[in-house]
Amino acid sequence: MEIIEVKNYDELSTVTADLIEKQIKMKEDSVLGLATGSSPVGTYKELIKRNLDFSKVRTINLDEYRGLAPDNKQSYIYFMRDNLFNHVNIKDENINIPNGLAEEGFEECLRYDKCIEDLGGIDLQLLGLGLNGHIGFNEPNTEFVKGTHVVTLSQSTIDANSRFFENYEEIPREAITMGIKSIMDAGHIVLIVNGAKKASILKDALCGPITPNVQASILQLHNNVTIVADKEALSELKKTF
Ligand code: GLP
């Protein structure tokens, strides 16, 4: 595991964009596993600025809310189009994200797993970290769920996401998320974390026991993980050395 300490969010974004740029230049038809949330917004801005060739790049997103239509501004497909896809030359057919409107959740999960398999796996998986240690929407649990599955969002996640919604009632209670095995099968995992509020959970994830109660702790078992984190996020972890 490599930990890159950055001084602020701008540097986090440029360093992460460097890693993604390198991946695309090394393999023009790379499969990028992409994340939403506030952590990767700067990285996407930076990638757009660099005018990279996305014409052969394939993407697979971690998750999507259930029940939100693609034109809903809070849906993750809307977020991805707004923050990245509409500004680079990626082909529409190369964009993959769970269908939040699928009525049969189970069928949609099978379709998504098949989609990951057909892509030949993920070359680089970008991850943010939930306040409760979730990656994608793999919430604290008694097990690590391998494949794509429907999740009931935890109260802490609903509260954390409430900042994006006007009314509390509008916040989706369910999502579809890629499973832990698909994430762990990625060739390279890049976890980006910033801010003091993530310091304690980052320490638990990287130095604590490997437990499904902190889903990100499984990353300790991956042999090619890069953590890009600012000083504030690393503050608790540093105390353990
Ligand atoms: C969301 C997403 C995750 C994301 C996490 C952290 O719920 N499903 O993929 O990594 O929460 O979000 P943020 O980067 O806004 O802190």
Summarize this entry quickly.
With 241 residues, the chain is of the alpha/beta class. It is built from eight helices and ten strands.
The dominant shape is: globular
The biggest sheet, with number of strands, parallel, antiparallel or mixed sense and barrel status, is:
7 strands, parallel
* Mean of residue pLDDT values: 97
Helix content: 25-40%
Radius of gyration: 17 Å
Bound small-molecule species: 2-amino-2-deoxy-6-O-phosphono-alpha-D-glucopyranose
Low-pLDDT ranges:
none
Name the beta content range: 15-25%
How widely separated are the two ends?
Answer: 15 Å
**Major sheet: order of its strands?**
1-10-9-6-2-3-5
User: Count the helices. How many?
Assistant: 8
The helix/strand order is EHEHEEHEHEEHEHEHEH
Structural category: alpha/beta
Number of strands: 10
Description:
The chain is of the alpha/beta class. Helix content is 33%, strand content 17%. The strands form 2 sheets. Strands 1-10-9-6-2-3-5 form a 7-stranded parallel beta sheet, with helices on both faces. A 3-stranded antiparallel beta sheet has the order 4-8-7, with helices on one face. The radius of gyration is 17 Å and the shape is globular. The two termini are 15 Å apart. The mean pLDDT is 97. The structure holds 2-amino-2-deoxy-6-O-phosphono-alpha-D-glucopyranose. 2-amino-2-deoxy-6-O-phosphono-alpha-D-glucopyranose is lined by residues 35-39, 62-63, 128, 130, 136-137, 157, 161.
